[in-house]
């Protein structure tokens, strides 16, 4: 079941087409940044004893961000893409607009997945709460709920991971879009986390690292990736 869910998630949300530039050096740096960021967060928590529950909160926050990232992309992504197309030369805009089909298709599948899973669970809960006797409808909903739990949840989790990583296959529009969307997404999350959780306790250096360490490091890697695309692969939006 997990293999099936993973295969479908890749087919729908990780098909980046010919537009995606594979740069192993960037992939290694991104992986190293993620690992070092997690290690640094744990080290700061243990060294300064900011909060006994901070480690658990940070772990759950990271998982929540992975799940919420595609939802944030659904809101912020269109604005970034519209700005990107508007900034492009007028001669290139029709081509970029013609490439919107693949990302829109990925967005449609993701929204449909969310609606179907939520709808089945809500209908099942309401039907069971009614407790008006067993019927064929209740058995159908019961089977559907089991499928959602066994196959739907893993699929949704992997779809969220791949959607966040590929920015809903946005590389099919232009290779520069994924790192640009990553830049926008990380700062949206930084503001959201600040408004939701506030500043952590501890010395100012710890507060700075917790709040800005992640966004600044992601920004640095994304800008470096954009520079490598221009200097190594000759990819630019404007000449």
UniProtKB/TrEMBL annotation:
TM segment ranges: 31-50, 62-85, 106-127, 139-164, 176-196, 202-224
Keywords: Membrane, Transmembrane, Transmembrane helix
Superkingdom of source: Bacteria
Name assigned to this protein: Uncharacterized protein
